[in-house]
Amino acid sequence: MSPEGDIPVKQGRDLLGVSPHTATDSxxxxxxxxPGVGCTVGPSPLGIAAKKLAMPIIPLSRSANLELxxxxxxxxIAQVRAGRSLSDVLSVQExxxxxxxxxxxxxxxxxxxxLLDALxxxxxxxxxxxxxxxxxxCALYQLRARPHTAHTTVDQAxxxxxxxxxxxxxxxxxxxxxxxxxxxxxLARCNAEPAQYSYPQWWIDGVRKAWPQCWExxxxxxxxxxxxxxxxxxxxxxxxxxxxxxxxxxxAGQSVGMNAILLERPLPIEAIPGxxxxxxxxxxxxxxxxxxxxxxxxxxxxxxxxxxxxxKTGHILELADCTLTALDNDPARAARIRDNLTRLGLDAxxxxxxxxxxxxxxxxxxxxxxxxxxxxxxxxxxxxxxxIKWLRRESDIARLAAIQGRMLDAMWQQLAPDGKLLYxxxxxxxxxxxxxxxxxxxxxxxxxxxxLAELDCGQLLPDAxxxxxxxxxxxxx
Length: 477
Ligand SMILES: C[S@@+](CC[C@H](N)C(=O)[O-])C[C@H]1O[C@@H](n2cnc3c(N)ncnc32)[C@H](O)[C@@H]1O
Description:
- 41% of the residues lie in helices and 13% in strands.
- By secondary structure, the protein is of the alpha/beta class.
- Strands 5, 6, 7, 8, 9, 10, 11 and 12 form an eight-stranded mixed beta sheet that branches.
- A hairpin with a 3-residue loop joins strand 2 and strand 3.
- The longest helix is centred in the middle third of the chain and has 21 residues, at 169-189.
- It is globular.
- Residues 306-312, 327-330, 333, 354-356, 373, 375 line the site of S-adenosylmethionine.
- S-adenosylmethionine is lined by residues 306-312, 327-330, 333, 354-356, 373, 375.
């Protein structure tokens, strides 16, 4: 029996502090393409994988709120484990006033879930219910992220557990206190790769196979806090003018890529100067490559085939006076295209339809340019959506690759002779990217792949400055 009573926990010794990370500092004005061989992804603030946690951005202000925040975050994690996306869960779930704290706990827990699961497995003698397990991993995250408030965290976590499962109060208390006593020894035992990197093993294996020279950097990049990047609307002002405007508001940012600005600190949308007036949009620097690669010109007929919420649609229209059809098969998401274009003062034909069934929405005329930003595993954007690491299954890669192949074939039929189709994903898995394009080229002799400036193999691997994307530009002969 443990000192805390008849509860299924293991015993421990001492506390290991967590080193705060230093934010990666890059002055580079260009995106690094990381073309597979010799690629150098930026250093991870997490140090060696996930064993040290990134410091949270948003502090929890009052311990009184921590109990509720842990309770709500635990519920969110349990729902993600049951298959729901974190953004869906958080949009309806957290109590008013706790939003930032719950988000911080939920995102931080998911970024580090491999390690937290392994720690909890070491601390528990027998399985607990999913809701309790989720609450305990959130509490462990809080202990690791803010070791200086450990005793408050234990107290508040035990209170949160008693709301959920009163009989488990003693268990929670023992688990968390044993973690504090035994941290170093526990961490030493959590040496399997899913704990070290906080990804499922199949994901680690897939990234290592695809990117043997930089797989750890790719994995670590996905566990960083995402930067906030702006796209300057060239129809309104230049990047230099907008940087000056930011300076007037005391906001620090730096140029990255062709037209992007990386903010030193993320801001709420309403605090971004000129956002409502359409001077800028929030868009990752890697995503900002799509519109220039598509190379739409004045008067061209352009199809954005998987367009919602319209990030790339807006960019295409900022760069060219073209006639654009923005298509998406999700009605709620398609409505957001219109909202985004209205804010930017731009116009397009917005259609809710399936790109695999063109007869239902096409006017029969071919397009000069097609952007196919295909649904994918989203394995390149896990720093923004850490739930993806735990929601995806290995079989999703082949399932999505099959859909992507069908979409490529269907969109190719809509492309005019001499027209160009830009295929894009936010994945780092070659089956959805280079291999999908190789298969397409093998079955379409009229297609030829054009080079993309600075992106030899088409793959932009994620780093501290941008997400991971794949691009392939195809021309029809
Ligand atoms: C990667 S997201 C597009 C992001 C968008 N291009 C942007 O930059 O904001 C993929 C989109 O494809 C849509 N989609 C999935 N299957 C589709 C289909 N069969 N036809 C049309 N759109 C589809 C999804 O609803 C989703 O909005």
